[in-house]
Amino acid sequence: MSNILDVRNLATGYGDLRVVWDVSFTVQAGEVLALLGRNGAGKTTVLRAITGLNRLHAGRIEFDGHDLGRTPPYKRIAQGIGIVQENKRLIGDLTVEENLRLGAHVRRWRRSALTSRLDWAYDMFPALADRRGTTAAMLSGGQQQMLAIAQALMPEPRLLLVDEPSAGLAPAIVGDVLSSLARLSETGMAIVLVEQSVDFALALASHVVVIDLGRVVLAAPADDRDELRAQVRDAYLALVEAPAGH
Ligand SMILES: Nc1ncnc2c1ncn2[C@@H]1O[C@H](COP(=O)(O)OP(=O)(O)O)[C@@H](O)[C@H]1O
Ligand SMILES: [Mg+2]
């Protein structure tokens, strides 16, 4: 199968400040790549480069076989890259349905296409269907996370980038988020999942990349989850023993 996402020797950062060096991975349809690492490792920065928010210092990012080059973020979204940012970008004063419509804006759909996509979203996230007229600010943390994911899915992306979806959520709700991502992956969605919670990530992952100080320290398939859990734990232990910081 061909790659939806191919990140090759990525180096990126903020202006001239480089915080990511030589990171490579691929994701195919229906695969979940878990991108793991300590706080400050560079995970969000890698996602920002894929979204077009951070300039590449070196390397190449291909989406669906095409070099993304300097394609601006809004065009990448229109082309099929969905992003759920670390600090969800919902508009609290708007209702669930208004937030979903906003998510679909880049597609400039006619009413019928928009309606059928809304139906799809409510089908995928039944809790949102019951609250379509509720303002986002009134939702629970878990419902807000679901809404943020649903909003990113509105333009029918083929690749979904999700930054720490379990952060700040009660354990019971984390399971709901996990199962919605699992259902999405079964529909053929390619997912890059950034997580601090290793257990959450490994439950879904097809393969895993652990980065630290902006470099890959472990890349492995998830054929054997117990073996992988042990490998990730060893990689983290090695990091804890090493001095942190640049
Ligand atoms: N806006 C910014 N300007 C400069 N440096 C930043 C900025 N945002 C993050 N960094 C630095 O980039 C590194 C990687 O951060 P980040 O990608 O957010 O890590 P993670 O998501 O893995 O916690 C850290 O050293 C962080 O301090
Ligand atoms: Mg981050």
Descriptors:
Rossmann fold, binds magnesium ion, alpha/beta, 10 strands, binds adenosine-5'-diphosphate, 246 residues
Describe the structure.
The structure is a single chain. This protein is of the alpha/beta class and 246 residues long. It folds into two domains: 3-80 and 157-241, Rossmann fold (3-Layer(aba) Sandwich); 92-156, no CATH class. The chain has nine helices and ten strands. It has helices at 43-51, 73-79, 96-104, 111-124, 126-129, 141-153, 171-186, 198-204, 225-241, and strands at residues 3-14, 17-28, 32-36, 56-63, 66-67, 81-84, 159-163, 190-195, 207-212, 215-221. The strands form two sheets. The protein has a six-stranded mixed β-sheet with strand order 6-7-8-3-9-10, with helices on both faces. A four-stranded antiparallel β-sheet has the order 2-1-4-5, covered by helices on one side. Strand 1 and strand 2 (17-28) form a beta hairpin. Helix 8 packs antiparallel against helix 9. The longest helix has 17 residues, at 225-241. The termini are far apart. The relative contact order is 0.18. The chain binds adenosine-5'-diphosphate (ADP) and magnesium ion.
